[in-house]
Amino acid sequence: MAHQKTLILCKPDAVKRRLVGEIVGRFEKKGFTVEQMKLMTLDRETAANHYAEHDGKPFFDSLLDFITSGPIVAMCIAGDDAISVCRLMMGATKFTEAAPGTIRGDYAHSFTENLVHGSDSEASAERELKLFFGG
Fold first, then answer.
1. Is 80 in contact with 3 (CB distance < 8 Å)?
2. Which of 51, 73, 85, 114 has the fewest CB neighbours in a 10 Å radius?
3. The pLDDT of residue 1
4. Residue 64 has what pLDDT?
5. 117: annotated active-site residue
6. Residue 135: predicted pLDDT
7. Sign of the CA dihedral running 111, 116, 122, 125
8. Whole-angstrom Cα distance, residue 99 to residue 60?
9. What value does the mean pLDDT take over residues 23-40?
10. For residue 46, what pLDDT is reported?
11. Residue 96 has what pLDDT?
12. Active-site residue, from 3, 50, 109, 117
């Protein structure tokens, strides 16, 4: 087991639907630590930087429209194998494939508006945490 840090975002739909407490609670109950947290609204430039790997894909503009449409909660979550375990807890990106008991499986009802984002690798976590919380 490796102690890791990962970025978790509660997206605008999670904030709007008042699910942030439930989402944070799930990670805390699993034993993870919330090391940093902030409520913010992303500007389009930061959002484009964050989702740079999707630039040029057909859904890129709608993804940016959504993630900048309202406040988000950005968190640095830490603990053993945080990256892979948090992603398991979030569930499959496609809400129709997310297992019951996962965040998306229990609450998501849209492909784009799927409540949460989590870093997918150590390299992504490092880049994303810097983007949202600085050095």
1. yes
2. 51
3. 82
4. 95
5. yes
6. 72
7. positive
8. 26
9. 98
10. 95
11. 94
12. 117
